[in-house]
Amino acid sequence: MTKKIAVFASGNGTNFIALHQAIIDRSMPVTIALLVCDHAAAPVVEKAQALGVPVLTVNFRDYANKAAAEAAILPALQAANVDAILLAGYMRIIGPTLLTAYPHKIINIHPALLPKFPGRHGIEDAFAAGVTTTGVTIHFIDAGIDTGQIIGQRTVPVKTDDTVETLAARIHSVEHQFYPDVLQTLIQEGAI
Ligand code: GAR
User: Fold this and answer.
1) What's the CATH fold of domain 3-188?
2) Would you list the domain boundaries of the chain?
3) Where are the alpha helices (H) located in 102-150, listed in sequence order?
4) What is residue 1's predicted lDDT score, i.e. its pLDDT?
5) What residues does N(1)-(5-phospho-beta-D-ribosyl)glycinamide bind to (predicted)?
6) Are 51 and 34 contacting, i.e. CB atoms less than 8 angstroms apart?
7) Distance in angstroms (rounded) separating the CA atoms of residues 190 and 174
8) Pocket lining: 47 vs ligand 1, CB cutoff 6 Å
9) Has 11 been labeled as part of a binding site?
């Protein structure tokens, strides 16, 4: 049976594109039923529209608080029969409204080797710390910041002549393989 996922993203959407393309290339039994974005002007919105993926943009400033904003997202997820949520550069903490509705079904990709360098600047923080190895973590979401159960990690070397930009490019290219690999495994295992 084909599973349905929602992708949540806030920015460029290169991971969204990688997931979308891998689903096609690998004939995965999964559909991106909805893109949820918290910035109407984010590049990911146009990318999703161009691919015919339904888009829900939610301006959190229009709501009294996170719970109210997530309560506005939830019916769209339910109407689309979403089985799981993949965060792909979604720069907000998921609140209890969505966590309760999708227990152990919300997954995040983080551009560092958690528990090291959580938060919004995982690449920059690892670079500034002078580590020689960093990487990518995919994990289930819980109520903390980048603290949920780790599904998998891939390491990425930091080269002596790296800039933040060259390191970021190397991390992103790993992410674009790794996230589809994990999605495929979770589907095969029946975890989502
Ligand atoms: C990715 O590198 C992802 O790991 C990171 O945002 C980027 C989004 O890129 N996520 C976080 O930092 C979450 N704390 P994209 O919009 O091109 O997919």
Assistant:
1) Rossmann fold (3.40.50)
2) 3-188
3) 122-129
4) 85
5) 13-15
6) no
7) 24
8) no
9) no
